Amino acid sequence: MEVLMRTMFQSLGKNHSMNKLAKKYGLRMGAARFVAGDSTESAIQTSKELNNSGKVVTLDHLGEFVFTEEEARLSTAMCIQTLEAIAESGVQSNLSLKMTSLGLDISKELCMENMRRILHTARMNNIFVRIDMEDYLHCQISLDMYKELRKEFDNVGIVIQAYLYRTEQDMNDLHQYQANLRLVKGAYKESPEVSFPEKKDVDENYKKIIKMHLLNGHYTAVASHDEEMIQYTKRLVRENGISNDQFEFQMLYGICVELQDRLVKEGYKVRVYVPYGIDWFGYFMRRLAERPANVWFVLKNFAK
Ligand code: FDA
């Protein structure tokens, strides 16, 4: 049953008509628990509140299904606007983005041009930019582009997914780039030809890559709500004398807030991933797919 629901939400998230419908009707169906509103103002307000509770932020202007050059440029302009709002408001936040929303499926050149514009503005404002990792089809090209950009910019990082078989090799290749990595388990529906089908293997690989990256001395963002992974990281840094400024924990807005607060109290750096914008549907479906129990939360909201 759970597998069925997961597959259903993953497919819905990719459905263009459903996305259009959701855009038209605004933030409903309980999505506001996971998305910080439609506008830049609401994203900055949420960031301020999170900063006041001791957490730093990464803002993500949601933009999925970009098919034209014009849409890609609009999405780039929104990222730049977000960077300017971060700088003006003084909130402690960096930026996360998806390269498909900057035209990756249209042409690599267009996407590189847009990435350079964003990274340039970010560098002028001393803001770090993280490239989210999307589905397997985009993995190789995302890594290739990251490596190219990394030679020009210090303020760029990327994400690595533990569920892929190729991940250990990718980590070895990234070693020479001193990459600032966000490590995640992986959120997309991938085939068993490219990814571990069993959760226990994903978890094992996740621990392996956390250890690899931290012991290699590179900055590591452990992005997980899994207490076992968090305990593992705490133990690892303690046993190896790794200082608190070489890593941070990251969690999604609205998820495991008590755990976030506990980590802040214990003195760890906690960054909250805050998505915002009218293109919230695909993001919301991925969160439901991760945890079908969230559906009860959504149904309760409908009933209110
Ligand atoms: P796991 O799925 O094992 O869950 C552990 C526990 O966490 C659950 O038992 C539950 O208590 C809680 N939990 C997890 N997900 C929840 C949810 N949706 N709602 C409520 N509780 C939940 N993926 C990707 O492919 N590319 C990317 O760029 C990113 N970026 C990213 C940034 C950040 C900051 C985070 C935290 C995650 C991502 N992800 C991602 C998503 C990631 O790959 C993964 O799908 C989710 O984090 C869920 O996996 P966990 O590690 O939390 O563990």
TrEMBL record:
InterPro entries: FAD-linked_oxidoreductase-like (IPR029041), PRODH_bac_arc (IPR008219), Proline_DH_dom (IPR002872), Proline_oxidase (IPR015659). Its cofactor is FAD. FAD binds at M133, Q161, K185, G186, A187, K199, S224, H225. Pathway: Amino-acid degradation; L-proline degradation into L-glutamate; L-glutamate from L-proline: step 1/2. Substrate binds at K98, R286, R287. Binds 1 FAD per subunit. It catalyses: L-proline + a quinone = (S)-1-pyrroline-5-carboxylate + a quinol + H(+). PANTHER family: PROLINE DEHYDROGENASE 1, MITOCHONDRIAL, PROLINE OXIDASE. This is proline dehydrogenase. It comes from Priestia megaterium.
